[in-house]
Design brief:
The protein is α+β, with helices and mostly antiparallel strands and about 55 residues long. About 45% of the residues lie in helices and about 20% in strands. The protein contains two helices and two strands, in the order αβαβ.
Length: about 55
């Protein structure tokens, strides 16, 4: 974003939404770090709707 004021408003909107629970990330699938190759293959298939989480 080229306009710093717009960027700050966007950040505030997102942070407020996350804090209030109005916005929450959608997690498609969680993989342990030991399955990182499988996580990458899953990502390449474009089957996911949401985020891929790798736990350590």
């Amino acid at each position: 974003m080229a306009d710093p004021e717009v960027l700050e408003r966007a950040k505030a909107f997102i942070l407020q939404g996350l804090e209030s629970g109005a916005l929450s990330p959608i997690i498609a699938k969680t993989f342990p770090l030991s399955d990182i190759q499988e996580a990458h293959r899953f990502l390449e298939t474009n089957q996911q709707f949401g985020k891929i989480v790798v736990t350590v």
